[in-house]
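Ticket 4471: requesting a sanity check on a complex prediction with NAP. Repro inputs:
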Amino acid sequence: MILDETYTLANGVAIPRLGLGTWQISDASVAEAVRAAVRIGYRGIDSAQAYGNERGLGEGVRTSGVPREQLFVTTKLAAEIKDRAGAAAAIEGSLATLDIGYVDLMLIHGPQPWDDFRGGDYSDGNRQAWAALEDAYEAGRIRAIGVSNFLPADIENILSGARVAPQVNQVLAHPGNTPSELIEYCRARGIQVEAYSPIAHGEMLSNGEVTAMAGRYGVTVPQLCIRYTLQLGTVSLPKTANPAHMLSNSQVDFVISDDDMSTLRALRADRYSEDNDLFSHHSA
Ligand SMILES: NC(=O)c1ccc[n+]([C@@H]2O[C@H](COP(=O)([O-])OP(=O)(O)OC[C@H]3O[C@@H](n4cnc5c(N)ncnc54)[C@H](OP(=O)(O)O)[C@@H]3O)[C@@H](O)[C@H]2O)c1
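Returned structure tokens:
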């Protein structure tokens, strides 16, 4: 049962293989979504400062009926914060807003601010943000630290001055957009990859090839996409606030054949990732 399965991070911390994405779930409705997910058996929940829902998410965790230590909460340091003092303050802000004692995993949300994504050189700023995460990690406020949307050069920059190596890189991965080289780069360095937008933000629901393959397996498109990312060895983070979808998204105990994995890996359907308008607005 996937909901009970974990990977082990480089520092020995267990991370659920399947987690609930919460981007675009409002602060007012996320507590109920978290409680519903936890009732179904989800233990991982993914948030970010940019989602504006840390308060409600913390409320959901506190009222879930499950002991805090059985849940794994991720949040992300806003991509715009590239100085050590600002990052330290923002980390304290997340801890206070969540109000759940500690954070399980905190990531630098992006190597550049969203309005300059894949733009200028923020190497010094990223090392500063990283130092603030290391401070919180060493103080025991955060159990694991990592990055998101980082390419190998961004990771090398962090490693060049790091006391603690990143334990996670959360990246866009779905059938149609599989960053195989990046996944392999991370795997070789003991960095656990997480797949965000495993359903391509919903785009896969209307993809003909993926729909046909899902039909052959007798599963839904989201189930095929989630299973695909799990078989890549990544954590899968589908978003939904709908309990029926949460349940079916967790029913992925089938196996995609090697041939079909190759087909999905080779598929090119990256309209979502290339939609710069969406990217610049999404603050995800
Ligand atoms: N680090 C980053 O920069 C970054 C960027 C993007 C996303 N993320 C993380 O990854 C999470 C997931 O990504 P995402 O929100 O972009 O998209 P996603 O999970 O790929 O797709 C979400 C869409 O799929 C629909 N859906 C989910 N399960 C379904 C089901 N069983 N049947 C039918 N429709 C279903 C959802 O609608 P319903 O809500 O109606 O079910 C929603 O429209 C985010 O919430 C966030 O936590 C991180």
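Notes from triage: Residues 123-138 form the longest helix (16 residues). Leaving this open until the requester confirms.
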